[in-house]
Amino acid sequence: MKKTARTLNDKRVFKTLNPKFSHIYIEKGVLNNPLSQKILFHFPKSKIIEIDHYKDFFCRPRQDFVLQKKTPKLILATQRTPFLYERARPCHWLGYQRFFYTSEIVNCLFDCEYCFLQGLYPSGNIIIFVNQADIKKAVKEELENGPLMLSISYNTDLLVFEKLTGMVEGWINFASKHPDITIELRTKSSIVFPFIHKDPLNNFQLSWSLSPNYAVNSFEHQTPSAEARIKAIKKVTANGWKVRLCFDPIIPFTGWKQKYEQLIENVFAEISTKEVIDVTIGPFRMSKEHLKQARKRRPDSLVLAYPYKLIKDIYSYPATQIEDITKTISGYISKHLDKERIHAAI
To answer: CATH classification of 83-106+132-344, choosing from 3.40.50.1000, 3.60.60.10, 3.80.30.30, 1.10.490.10?
Structure first.
């Protein structure tokens, strides 16, 4: 491939970038927080900068989201109320009447081009809210109103940060003591250590997002391969944990049907259907405002540039194309799983 001036300039720029978390911004009020100290211990060479409020750094104008994803800085802060949020419209409902999510970590180390976070936040830097006791207290109070579903990885891939934070283990322990809560952890990672030496829980659901390697390599940057994710699922199911398989978002590309069919065959060749809670299927979808901002920040993304159809403030494919996606993938999965366990997003 011919090297363009832009390619050469980009390489020179990336050579000058600092490594991930070379700078850690920390609110003065959480300097002595045990989780803050645990995280700082992992980065003895990082420059520590004290700040009054995380928004002073995170919400600055004219930030370069894409460049920050290459070399993110870390922000340690206190989360203020509200600690719980009701589910957003584009999310799977999963049959729960009361569905909430937490936002303990903001932004992700993975860099998926279709991710709504690049349209939601002004920065690609990472925030970790360290006041875990306050968040769990709020969940306990909400449980007094009845059983609920709680997504703990809505604004990040929480499992990727587990060695730093121990948050997943904390939620496993929480679920073991509160049978009225169902916790969902969604991930693309290949990390399994929190589940290997823990007894499986029926009210803690592992949801693994799966894509063919063409999609992984094309627009799920920095994520593990399909094979690595399947291997991780096989390990946790061997330890008794149940999983939800998520083929979401599905973005049609040349030959997508054949590649998804092969992926699904590979999945069920390695994983027993007895270990699968259910399967969710969803096409690309993003709110009008998030897509508008994401396109500004990533003008070279073919995924974001596609002329989606707007329906009730949500951009996705035309109804006929969504039907084709759903019918095709459901057909592949139904060869292995009963249709009652296959759910479409929209």
So the answer is: 3.80.30.30
